[in-house]
Amino acid sequence: MAKHVPRGLSVEARKLFREVVVQNGLDLIDDGASMTLLANAARALDRLRLAEKVVRKEGATIVDRFKQIKPHPMTARIDCEGQAVRQCLAGIVNHSAAASYRRAQELLHGGSAGESDPWGRRAAGQEPV
Length: 129
Fold this sequence. Notes:
Layout: H1 11-24, H2 32-58, E1 61-63, E2 69-71, H3 73-109
Antiparallel strand pairs: 1-2
Helix pairs in contact: 1-2, 2-3
């Protein structure tokens, strides 16, 4: 699968996209799920930076119609988008780790890792559970 950077991303988001692909190895991010997670992380990073820009310009608080000071609505957006970036990147890391484990099992067992022995107990001389 090609590692094309999605269109419409900022320079920072494109850099994140490329770095994650290089850091995790081109062969580990080769499926649709990982590419979708990575694209979503890059888009969420752009939305995060946009919300931060608004808060920097307008301030972290607003005064409502009752003259009460309240947090700027974009502060909640900053929290949500930051969480989205973290969750997408964590999903990629978990998926890459699982892929690495499967490949290691295939190399160890000389074929595909069998589902009846997911923890490699046969190779260690133990009875599978």
